[in-house]
Specification:
Elements: E1 2-8, H1 13-22, E2 31-38, E3 42-49, H2 52-55, H3 58-63, E4 68-74, E5 89-93, E6 96-103, H4 109-118, H5 128-138, H6 143-153, E7 159-164, E8 167-172, E9 181-185, E10 188-192, H7 195-200, E11 204-208, E12 213-218, E13 221-226, E14 235-236, H8 237-243, E15 249-250, E16 253-254, H9 255-269, E17 276-279, H10 285-295, E18 299-300, E19 303-305, H11 318-328, E20 329-331, H12 333-336, E21 340-345, H13 352-363, E22 368-373, H14 395-398, H15 401-408, E23 412-415, H16 418-425, E24 430-431, H17 433-436, H18 444-448
Parallel strand pairs: 14-24, 17-18, 17-21, 21-22, 22-23
Antiparallel strand pairs: 1-4, 1-10, 2-3, 2-4, 5-6, 6-7, 7-8, 8-12, 9-10, 9-11, 12-13, 15-16, 19-20
Helix pairs in contact: 5-6, 9-10, 9-16, 11-13
The chain binds adenosine monophosphate and iron/sulfur cluster (SF4).
């Protein structure tokens, strides 16, 4: 998971990218970077570990001159990753210098890298972006042709922006796993992982970059090419369920409306005997509204979030993750005492959060805790860019519903069905592989590994 932005034809483009990246910060907090192009300075890159506002000072932004740029926020994964994996990457090839930033995971990367290494290519990072960059560098013809032939070799998930000396390119894999939207800001163009970043710049949403589409934007305007003849989409359901901001629209569907509908359907499938409904701030708020409205049960602020503590999901040890949840959330005791509570969460991955929360609510005086999850059991690993640790850590992979309920200590536990999830989306193009094990691509190296 990562967030990307690309801007073309805007004065001080890097400042706009700085703003856009802050609106994509939820997609990655480990590191970030911006590459900007100016005719005098060529492509300049600044990047570092940390949040966008920590990495970019006034001086850093001033050094990134020019009217076109690309930017990236990197998701903290469990892999031991140094700063060499922070994007954008700047690459030299015989037709010039270009920079690239990417969101997603290439499933045939291992095979392609081995092939390139046997041809003498050296890789400096473990990132798929570097592979993409090598393939682009190897191609023939103009930049659009090179990107097209590189993209045709890749299988899996990639939403990518590329900056070269006169153009901005944006492409999306043929399945459309990761979002990428196009907007206009006066005469300038903006592409971003989520529409909330377009809104932040006051850009007008034009359309999504289509699955399997490559867009080239230069001084003459926008041109579209096809990477693949495949039609149809396979948007990551977890984007809707958890990752994207509720004020974003993905592939024409509002994320908030989707989540609210999952909450409503969750109540239809699994009502709960509760006096109040609470969410786990902020990600399950929209689903909790849907559940509360459907059941006519008041929605309350049962947990308060401390916004100044870092996220707990990727803490390296279970002990640290356990403390993390308690530091991040506090129960409102006066409200919870003596109450039967329905807790809505968007997902259970390892079970750490739910277990902590149930304990916390009981200690705060709740008489019953009914856990309702606005997605199906997350039982299969994702190969398309969502890092949830190793498959053994997925609690739904090795345990029955009763076992998970016992582990988290709730009075009852129920999940949304896959069918309801698809209905909430309103169109059939959702990837649900982590719930069903039905992967839309071949898995190549991942399967044999
Ligand atoms: P866990 O404690 O491992 O069960 O994590 C579940 C919680 O983490 C849920 O409340 C989600 O809001 C959140 N979550 C789900 N998937 C991810 C992910 N890939 N990265 C970070 N947080 C996640
Ligand atoms: Fe998203 Fe799950 Fe598909 Fe991965 S497997 S792309 S997390 S829906």
């Amino acid at each position: 998971m990562c967030g990307i932005v690309g801007i073309f034809g805007l004065e001080n483009a890097s400042r706009a990218a700085f703003t856009a990246l802050q609106f994509l910060q939820h997609r990655g907090q480990q590191g970030c970077g911006i590459a900007a192009y100016s005719p005098e300075g060529g492509i300049q890159v600044r990047k570092g570990a940390g949040l966008v506002r920590e990495v970019f000072s006034e001086a850093e932004l001033a050094a990134l001159r020019g009217s076109s740029c690309i930017g990236h926020v990197r998701y903290p994964t469990t892999e031991v990753g140094g700063t060499e994996n922070i994007q954008p990457f700047r690459l030299n090839c015989h037709s010039g210098v270009f920079a690239l930033a990417h969101n997603g995971n290439i499933v045939n990367a291992g095979i392609l890298k081995a092939r390139l290494e046997s041809l003498g290519h050296l890789f400096h990072s473990t990132s798929d972006s570097e592979l993409f960059a090598h393939l682009v560098g190897m191609g023939r013809g103009d930049m659009a042709g090179r990107i097209l032939s590189a993209a045709k070799l890749l299988d899996g998930a990639f939403s990518t922006v590329i900056l070269s000396d006169g153009a901005l390119y944006a492409c999306r894999d043929k399945y459309g796993f990761r979002p990428l939207s196009l907007g206009r800001l006066g005469d300038a163009y903006v592409v971003a992982s989520e529409t909330c970043a377009l809104e932040a710049l006051n850009a007008v949403f034009v359309r999504d970059v289509e699955p399997g589409e490559l867009i080239r934007i230069d001084g003459e305007g926008l041109k579209s090419f096809r990477i693949s003849a495949r039609r149809g989409r396979c948007m990551c359901a977890m984007e809707f369920i958890y990752f994207a901001r509720p004020d974003s629209d993905i592939d024409g569907s509002g994320v908030h409306a989707f989540r609210k509908e999952t909450g409503r359907l969750l109540y239809e499938e699994h009502p709960a005997p509760a006096d109040l409904v609470i969410c786990i701030p902020e990600s399950s708020f929209s689903a909790a509204i849907g559940f509360s409205e459907a059941g006519h049960i008041p929605l309350e602020t049962g947990l308060v979030k401390n916004a100044y503590v870092a996220r707990t999901f990727i803490e390296p040890t279970q002990a640290l993750r356990d403390i993390g949840v308690r530091k991040k959330l506090s129960p409102v005791k006066s409200l919870l005492k003596g109450k039967r509570v329905a807790v809505i969460d968007d997902s259970i991955v390892r079970g750490t959060t739910s277990r902590q929360i149930v304990r916390m609510l009981r200690e705060a005086g709740a008489t019953q805790v009914h856990m309702r999850i606005a997605s199906p059991p997350y039982a299969w690993p994702c190969f398309y860019g969502i890092d949830t640790g190793s498959p053994e850590q997925l609690i739904a992979a090795g345990h029955s519903l009763a076992q998970i309920r016992a582990y988290i200590g709730a009075d009852s536990l129920e999940y949304l069905s896959v069918d309801a999830l698809s209905r909430a989306c309103g169109h059939p193009g959702l990837c649900t592989a982590c719930f069903t094990g039905e992967y839309p691509t071949e898995l190549y190296d991942a399967q044999s590994g």
